[in-house]
Amino acid sequence: MASSTDCPDRAPRAASGNARRPSAGPVRLRTGVWLRAVVLAVLVLLAALAGCGAGSGTGPRDDPAATGTTAREHPSATAPVPGAAGTAQGRPATEAPAVIPGLGPRTRAWIPGDARQVVVVTGRDRNANHSQAVLHRHTGTGWQAGPAWPARNALRGWTDDHWAGDLRSPIGVYSLSDAGGLLPDPGTRLPYDRSDGFAVSGTGFEGEPLEGSFDYVVAIDYNREPGTSPLDLTRPLGADRGGGIWLHVDHDGPTQGCVSLKKQHMRDLLLALDPALHPVVVMGDAASLRE
């Protein structure tokens, strides 16, 4: 994987100590004993009926504090309430994970330590040209994910050894330092080159029109000189290693090597990216990114 930053069954239940012992046989009561037992039961029943709180008085059933209620039935005021913030069950839904999901240790190691914005583009598989993009921002304690945007990549999928004309997108971690487009700057904090040089015509691999594809562009710093317009043709690794790898507007078809997003999502991305947060893109097929 290349990088523009040279980052090189359930446990058995214990038997209860209160389990009943088997009876030795049926117990027979003598008649006198039986009669006294019946009388005693009637007296107990009458006493119970008198104590059920008939009328408007408050009895033990109405006031849990008046009973010997256990903590299991009525948690005390100091006991954690299920779903409360700070408890294991009530962890805030927006709590940011410590690491970005889907990225393995090798991929994470290539992300610069000062990067606080990471666009993760995950391809379905090595040879697929459909993918998904998510912008993650570091909150200080973890990574907060934005919405998942559908994306496209190169016609033949992904490669960790990109060459010009291979029709694969390069796998890796690359900085995002410059933007531009045919349309005026929507308000991005990245340097923005508005130029007619982003005009494009013709059709794509599936016969779809390419017009408008470069209305908004963010240059991916693969084999290019950061700090220049995305249109700059400088290729530090040589022209045979390809270049001009951009995030740009989707034209409803696979690309030659770029990553494309819907126009509104490209605009949202431009407005979100902040050079002070040292944004990077992490891109590749899902299996490669998990390494």
H/I helix tally: 4
Question: Major beta sheet, specifics?
Answer: 8 strands, mixed, barrel
Overall pLDDT level: 77
- How far the N terminus sits from the C terminus, by CA atoms, comes to 10 Å
The H/E string reads EHHEEEEEEEEEEHEH
Helix content: 10-25%
> For the largest beta sheet, what order do the strands appear in spatially?
2-3-4-11-10-9-7-12
**Proportion of strand residues:** 15-25%
User: Which class of secondary structure composition applies to the elements?
Assistant: alpha/beta
**Based on DSSP secondary structure assignment, what is the total number of beta strands?**
12
* Whole-angstrom Rg: 34 Å
Basic shape: globular
The stretches of 5 or more residues where confidence is low (pLDDT under 50) are 1-92
Topology:
Elements: E1 2-3, H1 31-50, H2 105-110, E2 117-123, E3 130-138, E4 143-152, E5 158-159, E6 169-170, E7 172-181, E8 192-194, E9 217-220, E10 246-249, E11 259-261, H3 263-272, E12 280-285, H4 286-289
Parallel strand pairs: 1-7, 2-12, 5-6, 7-8, 10-11
Antiparallel strand pairs: 2-3, 3-4, 4-11, 7-9, 7-12, 9-10
